[in-house]
Amino acid sequence: xxxxxxxxxxxxxxxxxxxxxxxxxxxxxxxxxxxxxxxxxxxxxxxxxxxxxxxxxxxxxxxxxxxxxxxxxxxxxxxxxxxxxxxxxxxxxxxxxxxxxxxxxxxxxxxxxxxxxxxxxxxxxxxxxxxxxxxxxxxxxxxxxxxxxxxxxxxxxxxxxxxxxxxxxxxxxxxxxxxxxxxxxxxxxxxxxxxxxxxxxxxxxxxxxxxxxxxxxxxxxxxxxxxxxxxxxxxxxxxxxxxxxxxxxxxxxxxxxxxxxxxxxxxxxxxxxxxxxxxxxxxxxxxxxxxxxxxxxxxxxxxxxxxxxxxxxxxxxxxxxxxxxxxxxxxxxxxxxxxxxxxxxxxxxxxxxxxxxxxxxxxxxxxxxxxxxxxxxxxxxxxxxxxxxxxxxxxxxxxxxxxxxxxxxxxxxxxxxxxxxxxxxxxxxxxxxxxxxxxxxxxxxxxxxxxxxxxxxxxxxxxxxxxxxxxxxxxxxxx
Length: 479
Fold this sequence. Notes:
Helix content: under 10%
Structural class: mainly beta
Strand order of the largest sheet: 27-29-31-34-35-33
Number of strands: 35
Mean pLDDT: 79
Distance between the termini: 162 Å
Radius of gyration: 49 Å
Number of helices: 1
């Protein structure tokens, strides 16, 4: 080989021997040892080095499908991990991760390597699997170092791994919502090589709590710390026990008693705000006092927004068609009201007193509490019921009132009352110009007392007693 200048002058010949020439060859080897570890919301992918000298980089792809996914229909997650890199960090996702090696000519390894994960994040999880395969191991820890930010190991697991080597596994408890574990392999005379526990068994922690103090640390640990703090904020520090570190006015969803609590201003006690019904997805306020914000008072509304009750200054209004007041067990009605303006106090679910359009009625005896010295003072008054002008047969009744009156407008008959019970009736009889003779029926005997007349404007009182089912009467002339 020789060079030629722009003027056409040739250089001396140069002989090249043994110079390597890059020719198309086989694709790079398939990736082996592809593994995944989840820390918080971050996925750490690692694999073994590919031995090809012309290796350029690796491609990471991902599919959300857990079955039937292929490299060709997966999306590119990390387009290039340059040689000699054998690890990469990305967001944790549920699905299948694929990896292929690519050489400098752009050839990809024949077969993609895949790994499946169903864990999208491990905030609030603990590694709890323990394996003891060589409990008689009496070796010592060599070159064992805690990873930054981890809590101290809770226990060590020892197990054999073939002649001439031992492995030591340390289980780390949860710290700030992360799961930590480390595996150390020790070979006699060879120092220490770090391994990883690939698929620890996990349980879902019942709480999402955090001390809300992010330590000075590197990525990705600091990202996991932030995510754990945000998750605790989003879930109101939910947990079966109170947060170990509390702050004034901090919220805590107590999952043991299903209560929403808030830390007081002095940060020395929890205040109960509400009770949660997690079965029916409801909540109830918990407070000794409910105070209105304005003079309008408090209003209770139904699901449609209609006011059921209002509590104002000195007034309580129940805006319902009917309501009942029951005992604590809810089995006995003590007071009932209906939309026809009827209010009924009850005893043992039996009506005892009720209001009507013209007054009130009693079912049973009207008793005076003589034990406590009570007495009926001043008697009672009642409105007279006007039964109108009568000139044909009709029957006396206490319904509506026991004081009554009617006008004698012609000859007719009056029948004894037959309403059940024992009672008195006082009836005023007034004659008009058409008054006629009055006869009585169904009484035990003919009425006693004065005789009735048919003289216009004459007045009489008719006193009726019904006792033990028998009615009697006395006539009193008033002129």
